[in-house]
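Quick board copy: two proteins, each given as sequence then tokens.
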Amino acid sequence: MDAERISHDGQLLQGASRPAGIDRLRRILTAYALTDSEVGYCQGMTDLCAPLLEVYPRDDQQAFDAFCGLMGRVRANFLGGMADMRRQLGLLGEVLGRLDARLHRHLVVIGAGSYVFAFQMLLLQLRREVAWADVFVLWETMWAREARLAAASGLPPAAAGRGAAVAETSQAQPPLQPQQQQQHQQYQELVPPPLQGAVRVDLRVFVVAAALLGQRAALLSCASMEEVVQFANHFPQPTNVVALVDQAERLFLKFGRLQRQRNGGSLSGCLRGGCTSSNGVELAAEEPMAAAFAGALPAQAQPGVTADGGDEHGAS
């Protein structure tokens, strides 16, 4: 377990408090590994768990329950074979190929068309790419937008899976006021219709796509895969993570419209987290992907993103 390598972010992982904080991480992650033996412990889980220590500074049980709930959303990232990570990388390439063909072609030409350089961003939900204070702002904004898109499209948001100790309870909501009903109806008209067999609304790939488009000029200046990886490992931190999710939502809606036009009114399962491959995107083979997993989590980089909303990059 690599708890000792966790960054010094947060009050409970700095100075004299750090040894106790690391011990708490070990206890929580060990308990999770015993609870979910299929996944166990994987590199990167410390990054996902560490922010929860700040939320529950004295209660390991609550921190554990919250971590299980978080893992319910991202558990597939850590399953053997990494099929879901390959799906996400493939969808990322498909999204950028549709919405910014020039950038996608450039990355393919220089050998970065597998998008493995974005592996850490997808695996850890941009945990290392944003400032510590913005982690929950980013995650909760993304989850809220997924729920809104799901409600408008008739599909569930990314739901907690096996290993999630915190169940999402459905609570009765007050009836919408007339103005709210009108706004909801207008929003529904923007959202792609449900796809038969789709699993959930999944916005995380679009958040990473928005992050990459926010650094479009820098990526276009990279002349090799090595330069892209180096840039990704030192990604500039975002100035506004809410704006980043705003951009991701616009990309989601635009990509959905393009998918409908291409498919004669139906949507690709990739858009809603239900596909296993991508169209025309080079995917890394399983062994290189496993090697990427082992090497995609360097000691804490200084990453992040700035979102811009240029129409050329897919916003509308």
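And the next:
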Amino acid sequence: MCGSLIGDNGLGRPRLYCSAACKQRAYRARIWAGTPRQSSALRRREAHLACALMGKAACVHVLLTEPEPIVLQGSASALTEAALEDARELLHVLEHR
């Protein structure tokens, strides 16, 4: 769960967790999955990503439609790449609902 190395005790089943605290964190993570609290967090994340994507798209639109350059060359491509990354993350979040 935490990424720590788990020692081999040699007897019985192999250990899955490095400590009782790690085991408890894993249990809480399993219980928390699918709760209304998590659903609310996912909706907030979706809304945040959608707003970020819209903001970046609006900036790209302004950069491409203004008669005079507003910022240095290459900014439109950087914003476009950032918007695409937000779109990919939003799609990933929506697919794993």
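Board note added afterward: DSSP finds three helices and no strands in the chain.
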